[in-house]
Amino acid sequence: MSNRDEFDDLIKNFKLDEIDDSQLQKEQVRRPMFDYEGDLHRASRPQASKQEYTPPRQAASSAAPAGAQRPRAMAAAGVGNAQMHHDTKVRGERREEKRSFQVNIDDSEFYDLTPEPQYSYGGGNNDNHDRDGGGRGGRGSGGGSGRWAKAILVLVIVLGVSIFLAFFALQSASDMFGLNKQDSQVEIELPENQSIPEIAKLLKENGVIQQSFTFQVYAGLKNKAENLVPGTYVLNSNMSYEEILAAFRIGNTKKVEVQITFYEGMTLSEIADRLEENKVVSREEFLDYLENGDMDFGYDFLSQIPDNDLRYHKYEGYIFPDTYLFYEGESVSRVVQKFLKAFNDRVTDEMFAEMEKMGMTLDETITLASMIQKEAGNVADMSPVSGVFHNRLKNPDSFPQLQSDVTIFYVEDDIKPYISVADQEMYDAYNTYVCQGLPVGPICSPGVAAIEAALNPQESNYFFFVTDEEGNYYYAETAQQHDINVLEASKKGKTHGIDTVTE
After folding, report:
1. Three-state helix/strand/coil letters over 73-129
2. Cα–chain center distance at 23
3. CA 367 to CA 365: how far, in whole Å?
4. Chunked in runs of 10, what are the mean pLDDT values of the chain (503 residues)?
5. Can you give the pLDDT at residue 35?
6. Which residues pair with 187 in a beta bridge?
7. Is 498 helix (H, G, I), strand (E, B) or coil?
8. Which residues lie in Basic and acidic residues bias regions (predicted)?
9. Which of 152-161's residues contact partners 24+ apart within 8 Å by CB, and which partners?
10. For residue 163, what is the DSSP state?
11. Which DSSP string corresponds to 239-281?
């Protein structure tokens, strides 16, 4: 017989109603509720003693369980004693089973031995992803940092592309208009049957352009390759795309280079005449461009030149005197740009700082420098002459007019001969015997020395000066002294200076 069968037999033969409550409670305290080996040992005892044992009948007055009293009442009502005793015994056994039979199962060992499942929903390869939030839930620092890294990467890429495009646009615009490029001549040979991309490559290799792609787009929109004439060309590295293509369309071959020197003190009219004499550009085309052409060459000083209808030439004084190389038939915009570039390069930041210190504008400085340039025959006399003008400008009550002869010469020689209708208001705006203070604008193109003299006048008490035909200068503090000097200077020929013109 197996252990299972012995256990079942023990349960069937065990009479719970024969054990009173006190014995049951002691037994529960004395041994475990589920003592399997003890049950086996007790089951091995002889069964006869249990069958022969008959429990005593309890008296009606003794404290018996309610289930044991009810059968007696039923017996009095006519129910068979045997049947009642059997039912009562069965109910008692069930009640005692419910009250005393317990099974305690310790399942802690089972659960302790079962490993807790590990979860991983994100956070990369970090072994501690559950602790830092990168495990369950998938919304920890691991996943968040990944998204931030991607966002920063996208932002960096967008910014990089934007900066590149902006830089490319600026470079393309500068290259297209020939701005801020080194001034150098390049001789190239344009072969026959060249496509636009091949021409762009040729120009870039020779340093004429910098952006071959931009040139291809520009040239492709306005030109056909077959319309460009092959040949030998002399190009400038700061030519605009349009100037390069215009040369290719016209078929200009190797150009004749000319060198021209423009002296300090030349007027705009004289400069225009010299350009025409050397076949660079006509006088009319040059002056008309200065009045009506596109002057957007990127030089800041141009915005400081005032617009005044009384000025005969707005850009008088700003065509810088120097020696230049031009080509016969060169574009007028290139000619003007060369002059303005020279002015921008020679008038330094230190000069602008000194203007601000003295409370003078750029145009006032150039206007005064042009008068000094005309009045002083040499550099040594420029600072003393400047000192006389400054003394008068500082004392407007005593000397409201500068009374410089050279301003009258400008009206007579450079304005009146070239206008069809007399303009007395314009004349008076330049005539320093009439206008107060400086004239309306420069009267010639001053050099660097004259500009520096205008900013560094010699200190003196002189308010007058006069020069003779030999270039000697006479200075005076009073009008009486000055009159004597004028008489002395006139003995040597023509004179000019301050207050030498008699009405």
Report:
1. HHHHCCCCHHHHHHHHHHHHHHHHHHHHCCCCCCCHHHHHHCCCCCCCCCCCCCCCC
2. 97
3. 5
4. 59 51 48 53 52 47 43 43 50 50 50 49 45 44 72 86 76 75 80 88 91 87 75 83 85 79 98 97 96 92 96 98 93 94 97 97 98 94 98 96 96 94 95 97 98 97 95 95 94 85 56
5. 54
6. 234
7. strand
8. 20-42, 84-100
9. none
10. H
11. --HHHHHHHHHHT--SPPEEEEE--TT--HHHHHHHHHHTTSS
d(CA 215, CA 199): 9
What spatial distance separates the first Cα and last Cα of the chain, rounded to whole Å? 160
Question: Token digits for 460?
Answer: 């003196």
Distances (CA, A) of 279 to 276, 285, 286: 5, 12, 12
Q: Which amino acid is located at 199 in the chain?
A: I
Q: What number of other Cβ atoms are within 10 A of residue 239's Cβ?
A: 23
**How, if at all, do strands 323-327 and 464-467 pair?**
unpaired
Which strand (E) or helix (H) includes residue 467? strand 464-467
Domain extents in the chain: 3-51+63-100, 177-253, 259-460
Q: How far apart are CA 318 and CA 304, in angstroms?
A: 11
Q: Is 306 left (phi over 0), alpha (psi -120 to 50) or beta?
A: beta
How far apart are the C-alpha atoms of 496 and 347, rounded to whole Å? Answer: 29
- Cβ–Cβ under 8 Å, residues 264 and 374: no
DSSP secondary structure letter of residue 302: G
Is the distance from CB of 404 to CB of 371 less than 8 angstroms?
Answer: yes
Tokens of 353: 């700082």
pTM, two decimals, is 0.57
Burial class (CB in 10 A: 0-12, 13-18, 19+), 148: exposed
Q: Which DSSP symbol is given to 457?
A: P
- Beta-carbon contacts of 279 under 8 Å, excluding residues fewer than 6 positions away, are 256, 258, 328, 329
Q: Which residue intervals of 132-240 are DSSP H helices?
A: 141-177, 196-205, 212-222
Question: Could you give the CA distance from residue 146 to residue 75 in angstroms, rounded to a whole number?
Answer: 87
What confidence tens digit (pLDDT) does each residue in 7-39 have? 566 555 554 444 455 544 444 444 555 555 555
Domain covering 177-253 assigned CATH 3.30.200.20 in the classification: no
pLDDT digits (tens, 9 = 90+) for 444-487: 999 999 999 999 999 999 999 999 999 999 999 999 999 999 99
